[in-house]
């Protein structure tokens, strides 16, 4: 086998890379174009950021038993056994690659790019770092984070109108989430049984996505109630853990490490009861779920079979 | 004989049983695939008389007929020929074959007729042997051993029809076990094949038959150690190569058989010095060039893929054995890049497997050869290659490798690739389910972004940031690392 070529990447300085065809120098390193990869890293002081890119043009030798040759061999032997005809209908059409959602744990697969885009933009774009909920828009994500995960908000909300109307352009604020809900129903004609207009305490089922914010979110997780629940339920760690395991993760474990650590205050339990779950935009068809329901909508959906 | 046309006509004639035919074919295909996976892919050929129709459904003569015919043969005088003819038809049935060899002196009789002084009877006797050779039973194979020295001897004869039958018969029994193969090698099958091809190179049918016989020999177990060195030491390589001429008079079939032999030779070993010294790379490439042109024009015979396939494989496996500096010397004035691309595009719909193999050869050609990469750009082949990126089963990964080979060579190439719309294609391939596609896309993206800041900006403008951010949640750690590195070191910084 031939040795892999040395890097032939012409850097501005004229010298190529010194390594065995491995990494490429970034354009920042023009002045040090002869530096080896190790020296480059020392200089930039980012020892942990090793260049993971390893592509090198490769000569591929294929042994005659290689699977890449299977179809051609079958063709050959069909001919030898007088089974070959050239009718076009017999030949299968070339297959097309599928697209798949990258998000670890989301196993959705799509046959067209448009479907992928729609899925990703709908479900994974605006994800709350704390509780992994997916919101349909940046604005709603901001509102969600503020209302659910911001202790300052909860403090201020005791004294002033903080709950913002969800309809863009309205701008009205309300003292409680219930008041906001009423406003949405009366003024903006939202249905009273709006699917995603549930308070944080009400849940459609026992499964919850909340992970790290146990103390603050516990009331919402554990209590199932139709109305306002002002009692803060104690966290049941075992139950919470079970739920965690059964959940689909939207984001990787690295993301989990970055979840905010929000401290809880005793008053939060009361205001929590009024917090709203995320809403979806009225533009989106009802068949597509958002919010915590979205996970279930795609869970177990392995996409189309190849 | 080149029977593709006959088979097609037959299929057309029996319109009613076409569905059965199709089903049978599909079953056979499945069986062939499984046999290949079990390393037991062996075929035999049946040479028909010109006036005959192959119809295996109508085999009816049973064992009793064979017994009777043999007795008649042993006792009759003047009607031997008629009996021989009947016997050869009877021997088409597998059960009759088995029954025949169990009869005492049956093979002895055939061999004596084979070697007798009557030419006509020789021909009929060899036809019987040919029918027998079609059997897959080990007992039939070992019964053949007395006949082999004579079959080999007759290869240097001048009767084309007779020689043809001997060759196909030998080719059929070659893969039937170690004993037969050892015997044939010891009896000099390789020099016999070489001199046969040499002496009868004017005869299409004989050359094709010899190619087939050699191919069968090369499929035997341990051929790489036991057969190939002897073949390479003989005249056979140059003879095989001499058949690879684009001369339309000479016909597709002999060239195809010889090309398959060459494929067996190149794909079983890595030492290609003998073949390269005899100009194998140039010969295979130049034939590919003319075929590529013809295929691109839609101007080819039926069955051309049976020649294109082994040629592609030869070139594909010879290229790694040829150092880059020697490449232009080996290839001469043969310019492979455009014809290879033509083959990829032309075979994509009818035979995606061949498109994939052609893309593989293109990868090997562009891996270390800057000229070939430049040619892809000069001949404006990149946009069409980019159109191949949706197609799976190994096609898009190989095409992406080719494009990565180009990007790897020079910054200027990266700029050109970006101008040709590769970035938007990459933003799509980054979303594919196939992890190899994602990884290769990231590698290619990295090379392009590092080559110029404008490319990074263009990528961001085209919405690439969100794609990379999404990839940071990919289940594969290696993929995540690459995306993160690219984002942090080169796009966001």
Describe the fold and architecture.
Chain B: This is Transmembrane and coiled-coil domains 6. Chain B: InterPro entries: ARM-like (IPR011989), ARM-type_fold (IPR016024), Armadillo (IPR000225). Chain B: It comes from Fundulus heteroclitus (Killifish). The complex is a heterodimer of chains A (306) and B (493). By secondary structure, chain A is mainly α. Chain A has eleven helices and six strands. In chain A, the strands form three sheets. Chain A has a two-stranded antiparallel ribbon. Chain A has a two-stranded antiparallel ribbon with strand order 3-4. In chain A, a hairpin with an 8-residue loop joins strand 5 (163-164) and strand 6 (173-174). The longest helix of chain A has 12 residues, at 138-149. Chain A is elongated. Mean pLDDT of chain A is 60; it is low at 1-38, 40-47 and 202-306. Chain B is an all-alpha fold and 493 residues long. Among the domains of chain B are: 1-217, Leucine-rich Repeat Variant (Alpha Horseshoe), CATH 1.25.10.10; 400-493, Leucine-rich Repeat Variant (Alpha Horseshoe). Chain B contains 32 helices and no strands. Chain B has helices spanning 4-13, 18-37, 63-75, 80-90, 94-102, 106-114, 119-133, 138-143, 148-153, 160-173, 178-186, 189-199, 204-218, 223-226, 228-233, 236-243, 252-268, 273-277, 280-297, 305-318, 324-331, 337-347, 352-367, 370-378, 382-386, 395-409, 411-419, 422-429, 435-451, 453-461, 464-471, 477-491. The radius of gyration of chain B is 28 Å and the shape is elongated. Chain B starts with a helix and ends with a helix. The interface between A and B is large, with 74 and 104 residues.
């Amino acid at each position: 086998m031939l040795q892999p070529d040395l890097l032939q990447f012409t850097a501005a300085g004229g010298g190529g890379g010194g390594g065995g065809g491995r990494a490429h120098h970034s354009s920042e390193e023009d002045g040090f174009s002869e530096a080896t990869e190790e020296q480059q890293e020392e200089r930039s002081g980012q020892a942990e950021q090793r260049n993971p890119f390893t592509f090198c043009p490769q000569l591929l030798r294929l042994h005659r038993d290689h699977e890449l040759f299977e179809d051609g061999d079958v063709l050959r032997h069909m001919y030898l056994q007088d089974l070959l005809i050239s009718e076009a209908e017999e030949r299968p059409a070339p297959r097309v690659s599928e697209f798949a959602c990258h998000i670890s744990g989301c196993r959705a697969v799509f046959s067209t790019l448009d479907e992928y885009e729609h899925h990703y933009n709908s479900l994974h774009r605006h994800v709350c770092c704390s509780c992994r909920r997916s919101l349909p828009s940046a604005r709603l994500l901001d509102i969600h984070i503020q209302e659910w995960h911001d202790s300052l908000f909860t403090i201020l909300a005791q004294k002033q109108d903080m709950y913002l109307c969800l309809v863009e352009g309205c701008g009205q604020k309300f003292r409680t989430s219930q008041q906001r809900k009423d406003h949405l129903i009366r003024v903006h004609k939202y249905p009273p049984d709006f699917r995603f207009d549930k308070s944080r305490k009400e849940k459609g089922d026992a499964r919850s996505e909340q992970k790290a914010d146990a103390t603050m979110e516990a009331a919402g997780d554990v209590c199932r109630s139709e109305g306002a629940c002002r009692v803060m339920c104690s966290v049941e760690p075992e139950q919470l853990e079970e739920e965690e395991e059964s959940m689909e993760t939207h984001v990787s474990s690295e993301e989990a490490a970055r979840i905010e650590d929000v401290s809880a205050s005793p008053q939060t339990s009361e205001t929590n009861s009024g917090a709203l779950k995320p809403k979806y935009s009225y533009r989106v068809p009802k068949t597509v779920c958002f919010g915590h329901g979205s996970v279930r909508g795609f869970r177990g959906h392995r996409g189309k079979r190849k | 004989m080149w029977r593709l046309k006959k088979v097609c006509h037959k299929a057309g004639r029996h319109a009613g049983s076409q569905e059965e035919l199709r089903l049978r074919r599909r079953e056979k295909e499945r069986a062939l695939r499984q046999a290949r996976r079990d390393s037991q892919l062996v075929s035999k050929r049946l040479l028909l008389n010109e006036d005959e129709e192959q119809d295996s459904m109508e085999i009816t003569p049973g064992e009793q007929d064979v017994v009777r015919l043999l007795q008649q043969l042993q006792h009759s005088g003047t009607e031997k020929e008629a009996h021989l003819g009947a016997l050869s038809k009877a021997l088409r049935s597998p059960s009759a074959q088995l029954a025949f060899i169990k009869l005492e002196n049956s093979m002895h009789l055939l061999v004596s007729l084979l070697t007798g002084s009557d030419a006509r009877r020789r021909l009929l006797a060899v036809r019987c042997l040919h029918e027998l050779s079609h059997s897959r039973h080990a007992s039939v194979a070992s019964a053949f051993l007395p006949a082999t020295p004579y079959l080999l001897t007759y290869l240097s004869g001048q009767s084309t029809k007779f020689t043809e039958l001997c060759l196909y018969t030998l080719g059929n029994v070659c893969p039937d076990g170690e004993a037969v193969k050892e015997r044939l090698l010891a009896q000099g099958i390789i020099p016999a094949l070489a001199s046969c091809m040499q002496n009868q190179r004017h005869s299409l049918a004989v050359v094709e038959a010899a190619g087939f016989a050699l191919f069968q020999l090369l499929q035997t177990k341990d051929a790489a150690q036991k057969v190939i060195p002897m073949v390479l030491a003989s005249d056979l390589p140059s003879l095989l190569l001499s058949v690879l001429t684009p001369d339309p008079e000479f016909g597709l079939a002999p060239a195809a058989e010889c090309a398959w032999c060459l494929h067996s030779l190149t794909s079983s070993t890595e030492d290609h010095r003998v073949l390269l010294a005899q100009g194998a790379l140039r010969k295979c490439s130049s034939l590919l060039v003319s075929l590529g042109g013809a295929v691109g024009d839609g101007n080819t015979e039926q069955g051309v893929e049976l020649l294109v396939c082994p040629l592609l494989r030869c070139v594909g496996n010879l290229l790694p054995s040829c150092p880059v500096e020697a490449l232009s010397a080996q290839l001469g004035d043969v310019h492979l890049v455009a014809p290879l691309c033509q083959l990829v595009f032309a075979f994509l719909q009818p035979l995606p497997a061949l498109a994939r193999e052609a893309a593989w050869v293109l990868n090997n050609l562009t891996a270390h050869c800057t000229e070939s990469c430049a040619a892809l750009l000069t001949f404006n082949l990149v946009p069409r290659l980019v159109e191949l990126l949706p197609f799976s089963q190994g096609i898009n990964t190989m095409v992406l490798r080719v494009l990565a080979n180009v990007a790897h060579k020079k910054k200027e190439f990266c700029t050109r690739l970006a101008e040709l719309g590769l970035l938007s294609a990459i933003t799509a391939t980054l979303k594919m389910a196939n992890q190899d596609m994602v990884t290769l896309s990231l590698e290619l993206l990295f090379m392009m972004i590092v080559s110029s800041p404008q490319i990074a900006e263009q990528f961001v403008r085209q919405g690439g940031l969100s794609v990379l951010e999404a990839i940071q949640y990919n289940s594969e750690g290696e993929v995540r690392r690459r995306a993160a590195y690219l984002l942090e070191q080169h796009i966001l910084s």
